[in-house]
């Protein structure tokens, strides 16, 4: 009996470790970003994407990158979801993951989608991955420190239950808000054309740097073991909403460039 209990505990601990390491924007966040992107696609891009995805929406496929993690055949894509770098460092000079990272993953997807010789199946797969990865790029702790796995090992309390800093930013705040992804998308800020263009400006590395700067603020926003509740959401959820919207607008920019 004692052996069984120990085995069960071990399984629970392993499953928790795997979950914490692979966290990304939760489904609601990814779908909100996909929905926002759809609103800013050109007519031509929207038509080509609909054909490639066989009618599925960007919101629907936005969680695909997480769904395939349970399949060992897709294990090589795991490192595409994040970039580990010191808070005082930058991507250009930081040590790179030999298995690839978020930047190499996004660029690979773009190259496949622009390749006239790529198969429809390859383009469909890498479009789904691109939608997901641009969402990940805008979760600040996906550009976090290696030593704490992007905040996954920083344990905190969220409304009386155990969580970690990464998970709070991935989904806890979004879930606590209680809106569907459609409600989140429909209630994004009303921006002028000039404001949208300003957000869409820059390169992939510019966007990554922006998220990295936010990560620095997130790391000092809570202490280990801190009990986070409504005040934390009040201060930080506006940043989450901004990041979801920026992710959608920038995803639309990339897709318009690829498919228009």
TrEMBL record:
One of its GO terms (biological process) is DNA catabolic process. InterPro entries: PLipase_C/P1_nuclease_dom_sf, S1/P1nuclease. Keywords: Disulfide bond, Endonuclease, Glycoprotein, Hydrolase, Metal-binding, Nuclease. GO terms for molecular function: endonuclease activity; hydrolase activity, acting on ester bonds; metal ion binding; nucleic acid binding. Pfam families: S1-P1_nuclease (PF02265). This is S1/P1 nuclease. Gene3D superfamilies: P1 Nuclease. Transmembrane segments: none annotated.
């Amino acid at each position: 009996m004692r052996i069984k209990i120990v085995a069960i505990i071990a399984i629970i601990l392993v499953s928790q470790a795997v979950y914490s390491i692979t966290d990304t924007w939760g489904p609601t966040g990814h779908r909100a970003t996909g929905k926002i992107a759809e609103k800013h696609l050109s007519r031509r891009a929207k038509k080509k994407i609909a054909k490639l995805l066989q009618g599925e929406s960007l919101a629907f496929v936005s969680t695909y990158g997480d769904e395939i993690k349970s399949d060992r055949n897709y294990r090589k894509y795991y490192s595409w979801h994040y970039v580990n770098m010191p808070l005082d460092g930058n991507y250009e000079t930081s040590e790179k993951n030999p298995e690839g990272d978020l930047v190499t993953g996004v660029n690979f997807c773009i190259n496949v989608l622009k390749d006239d010789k790529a198969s429809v199946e390859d383009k469909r797969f890498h479009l789904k991955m691109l939608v997901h990865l641009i969402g990940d790029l805008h979760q600040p702790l996906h550009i976090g420190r290696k030593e704490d796995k992007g905040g996954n090992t920083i344990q905190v309390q969220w409304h009386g239950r155990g969580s970690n800093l990464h998970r709070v930013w991935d989904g806890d705040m979004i879930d606590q808000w209680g809106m569907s992804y459609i409600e989140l998308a429909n209630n994004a800020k009303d921006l002028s054309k000039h404001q949208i263009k300003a957000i869409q400006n820059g390169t992939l590395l510019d966007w990554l740097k922006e998220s990295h700067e936010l990560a620095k603020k997130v790391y000092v926003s809570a202490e280990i073991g801190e009990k986070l509740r409504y005040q934390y959401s009040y201060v930080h959820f506006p940043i989450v909403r901004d990041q979801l919207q920026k992710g959608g607008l920038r995803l639309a920019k990339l897709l318009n460039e690829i498919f228009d």
